[in-house]
Amino acid sequence: MMRMSAIACGPVRSRLDGGRWNFQHGPITLILDAEGDARACEQAYALCWHRFQTVLSELVGELQQLRRPAAELLEYGASAVSGPIAGRMVGACLPFARERFVTPMAAVAGAVAEELIEVFRRPGIHRAYINNGGDIALHLAAGESYRVGIWSNLDRHPRREATGSELDGDFAVEATMPVRGVATSGWRGRSLSLGIADSVTVLADGAAAADVAATLVANAVNCEFEGIIRVPADRLKDDTDLGGLPVTVAVPSLPPEAAAQALQAGRKEAEYWRERGRLYAAVLLLQGRAATALPREAGAAAHASLLLRSVCLREVA
Q: What is the residue-level pLDDT of the chain in tens, covering all 317 positions?
């Protein structure tokens, strides 16, 4: 979560290998990459940097509203907040708010990436991505695609991007798919989770929506088993939006039936939101096992299954 002190140091940026950029400000760390006409890409990077410099102060000024349960904001919608990123956060949560506890903070990483990717949607840029701690916004011109990696445990590679040989799986997002956002959540990640998933990766129409859906599906990957340790969220972070809700801090090795039960609960949640158009597909990982929720429309499930073919864990039936 963001603290007011996070704005004491200003934003910084650095050029990475391959022409990518790293933007940082307080708790926000972005990796950006664009391909296409060199001039168009550099102009977009400059515009993105200009916009990025206002993001954190903009959000910190609205934290009180953004930490409220989204159900309390249904009456007001996006007008409950003033900034465009905060508006994206609220808007992404409202479709879930009548049925699940969620706050707009569940969408913060995805909403930041989604806001900034807009400057790359211009002639001359073939494809671009903004990765905000694993929550990714995409721009894909016609005929373009990205291959996105899946990791169940980021602790295995804390300071660098994993190579293909270290991936638990990967999938392709093609321009023809209704997917422009990818997000991952789980108890091992940087955010708190009510569930026990190592990771849940969601594909959705935007990064903010994917962020919320991944949070809720990860919360649903759950079971009762001796040795799972949960503590009130506010004991871990005094500024958490989760209050005293119990969040997972340790998961022991689970027997196959317990892991399968937890994954089935998560898959049911993913399929529920898929049927309501809130996500396109999801991959759920837990201790060497996987579950997927794939599109139902004619031909799409087979297509998505092919794209997800390299998920290399044992799939739960």
A: 444 344 567 999 999 999 999 999 999 999 999 999 999 999 999 999 999 999 999 999 999 999 999 999 999 988 999 999 999 999 999 999 999 999 999 999 999 999 999 999 999 999 999 999 999 999 999 999 999 888 776 555 444 444 444 567 788 899 999 999 999 999 987 789 999 999 999 999 999 999 999 999 999 999 999 999 999 999 998 788 998 999 999 999 999 999 999 999 999 999 999 999 999 999 999 998 999 998 876 566 655 555 555 554 556 65
Q: DSSP assignment, residue 197?
A: -
The total of other beta-carbon atoms located within 10 Å of residue 60's CB is 16
d(CA 275, CA 278): 8
pTM for this structure? 0.90
Task: Name the token pair of 139.
Answer: 């721009």
**Contact assessment for residue 168 and residue 312, using Cβ atoms and an 8 Å cutoff:** yes
**CA 151 – CA 277 distance, rounded (Å):** 25
- Residue with tokens 């002190």, as numbered in its chain: 5
Paired tokens of 86: 């905060």
Helices (H) and strands (E) in the chain, counts: 9, 14
| Residue tagged 């089935």 (tokens) | 264
CA distance 36 to 38: 6
Distance from C-alpha of 189 to C-alpha of 193, rounded to nearest angstrom = 8
Q: How far is Cα 26 from Cα 21, in angstroms, rounded to an integer?
A: 17
d(CA 92, CA 90): 5
* Whole-number Å distance between alpha carbons of 110 and 214: 11
